[in-house]
Amino acid sequence: MSQIIKTKAFVLSKLDFGDTSKIANFYTEDLGRISGIIKGARSPKSKIGKTVDLLNYVDLVLYKKEGRDIQIITQADLIEYYPNIKSDLEKLKYASAVIELLLRLTVENDQHRRLFIGVEKILQRMEDETTQPILLFSMFIKFFLEEIGYGLETDKCSLCQKSLLNSGNVSYNHEHGLMCKSCSENHLVLFEFSMELFNKMVCLSQRNSKCSYKENELIEIITFFERVLIYHIDEFQGIKSLKIY
What angle do CA 219, 140, 206 make, to 5 degrees? Predict the structure, then answer.
């Protein structure tokens, strides 16, 4: 069965196809991640070819057919192109990391509206605010892990069930998750948080948080979340965007 669908989308990637067309990857509000062909997009006169550019937020119209891997994109209207992000190397670095996570770690044709809204909000904050981009990305990657099923229980020790707050250093391994100082003495430790750093990691999810962060603390938190993803997802070797810029 075929149908015409209109949906909002973020452009994740694009590449030339044939003499006149392009194939692009999108993260959409209603369909999740999809691939689509844009016929004639390489023509200098093509409006849609210019609109479908990396990181742009667009209104898509597509001709969707069940069982077809690449859908046909018939229209794209620009919602936001994030000029402040694209003109600021630091903002672009972390916005690109958001896009990379969607492209590499989301499931094709799997709608996830809460994740879509989260992407919409974090990119708009990067565009509009003076908040450190690395802090906004730290908030996003924690949210992203939770939304794709790899969130961590931060309230209590995974082994003894005692509260982790104010329990001394907090340790982690892939088998057990987060452990209190006492339980970790008898298990392999892959990552150890000071109590201060652990509380700051938890603070990333809290609205109106008054936590303050040093850049090296945020780098350490992001590195931790990367390790969790690398362990759980085959072939994922880390976030390339953070190393390129």
Answer: 95
45, 24 in Cβ contact below 8 A?
no
| pLDDT, tens digit (0-9, with 9 covering 90-100), for 144-184 | 999 999 999 999 999 999 999 877 899 999 999 999 999 99
Tokens of 94: 């972390």
- How far from each other are the two terminal CA atoms of the chain, in whole angstroms? 44
Would you say 105 and 28 are in contact if contact means Cβ atoms under 8 Å apart?
no
Domains, the chain, ranges and CATH? 2-80 (2.40.50.140), 83-151+213-244 (no CATH)
pTM of the model: 0.94
State the sign of the Cα–Cα–Cα–Cα dihedral 80, 84, 86, 91: negative
Angle at 10 between CA 66 and CA 37, to 5 degrees: 45
Rounded CA separation 177/122 (Å): 27
The answer to whether 110 and 32 have CB atoms below 8 angstroms apart is: yes
Please state, in angstroms and rounded to a whole number, the distance separating the CA atoms of residues 134 and 49. Answer: 31
